[in-house]
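Task: sequence design from structure.
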């Protein structure tokens, strides 16, 4: 697969997971297997605390550190995920570009001004994350009109993803909003721009993809690659604590729940003691020391999301929780990034063989 001239040997993008879940360790390991390793810019000011800097400045320096560490460990493709909703979105994008990161992935809002940050001679590719064809069309129109630039790819994130979801709560279980429906819709919209301007814009499918067969099936709908987060959490190279990883291994299907995040969006997480207390109203509203997310309503929020996610990253699950995709409960052990890639590639090949078989029902 090709993203803006960058050759991706294996069409697998590792999803950006904050706080601290996908940093240089996981990103470099994925890049070394031929996929796209992605550092999440969320909450790095907590991980890389510096008494001389405030949280937002520490966030910038933390991101710079993680990009450099990743580049020391790999010659492969490294991306950064920067959420539009982050208060210092612009600073984090500028830092990523100045550090010559290969790709910026950006969602949790429409990144309508993203090309404005590109410098002449820069090589960073820009990939918006959307959850509808309408959003993809709007971004293409705006970017082309304002900057004479089209996205280098799109990630389409369906409602089975982990973390914050770009859907209304009622739509999450609606088959009309399934990834199978969204991917062809985005591919259709994007194809019009590809044909008109002669630029390839691959569509990357995300949310609930767990096996090689899942990859094959969504590629049949027009996706050129997939983004996977959940599978990579239960690897040795994942940057999270052992306790965080084990919350996936020990999870049951009934533990996967949709919660309302303080940032004003629904999210999917593994139910635990912390979230149960929140449900029962036992958590008290907090004062915000960080101002990390623009949409976070501190006055009505029972907890600080960045603190809760940071606690979980460190393994303090009593004071935090793990975001996870809908299939997180399928994990039964800690493995390695190489083993995950081998399993996905093998499963993909099996699905192709099955499809090409003369007895295949698809024939």
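Answer:
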């Amino acid at each position: 697969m090709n993203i803006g001239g960058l050759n991706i040997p294996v069409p697998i993008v590792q999803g950006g997971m904050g706080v601290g879940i996908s940093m240089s360790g996981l990103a470099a390991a994925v890049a070394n297997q031929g996929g796209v390793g992605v550092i999440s810019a969320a909450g790095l000011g907590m991980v890389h605390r510096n008494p001389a800097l405030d949280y937002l400045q520490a966030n910038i320096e933390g991101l710079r550190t993680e990009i450099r560490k990743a580049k020391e460990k790999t010659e492969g493709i490294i991306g950064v995920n920067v959420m539009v909703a982050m208060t210092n979105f612009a600073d984090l994008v500028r830092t990523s570009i100045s550090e010559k990161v290969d790709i910026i992935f950006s969602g949790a809002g429409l990144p309508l001004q993203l090309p404005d940050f590109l410098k002449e001679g820069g090589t960073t590719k820009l990939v918006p994350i959307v959850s509808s064809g309408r959003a993809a069309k709007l971004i293409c129109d705006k970017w082309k009109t304002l900057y004479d630039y089209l996205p280098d790819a799109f990630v389409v994130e369906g409602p089975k993803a982990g973390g914050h979801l770009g859907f209304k709560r009622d739509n999450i279980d609606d088959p009309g909003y399934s990834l199978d429906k969204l991917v062809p819709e985005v591919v259709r919209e994007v194809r019009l721009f590809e044909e008109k301007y002669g630029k390839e814009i691959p569509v990357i499918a995300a949310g609930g993809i767990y096996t090689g067969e899942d990859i094959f099936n969504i590629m049949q709908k027009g996706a050129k690659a997939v983004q996977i987060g959940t599978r990579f959490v239960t690897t040795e190279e994942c940057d999270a604590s052992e306790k965080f990883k084990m919350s996936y291994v020990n999870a049951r299907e009934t533990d996967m729940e949709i919660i309302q995040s303080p940032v004003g969006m629904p999210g999917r997480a593994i139910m635990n003691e912390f979230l149960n207390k929140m449900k029962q109203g036992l958590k008290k509203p907090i004062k915000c020391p960080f101002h990390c997310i623009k949409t976070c309503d501190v006055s009505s929020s029972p907890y600080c999301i960045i603190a809760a996610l940071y606690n979980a990253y460190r393994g303090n699950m009593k004071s935090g929780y793990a975001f996870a995709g809908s299939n997180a409960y399928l994990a039964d052990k800690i493995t390695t990034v190489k083993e995950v890639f081998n399993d996905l590639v093998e499963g993909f090949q099996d699905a192709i063989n099955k499809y090409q078989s003369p007895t295949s029902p698809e024939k």
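The radius of gyration is 19 Å.
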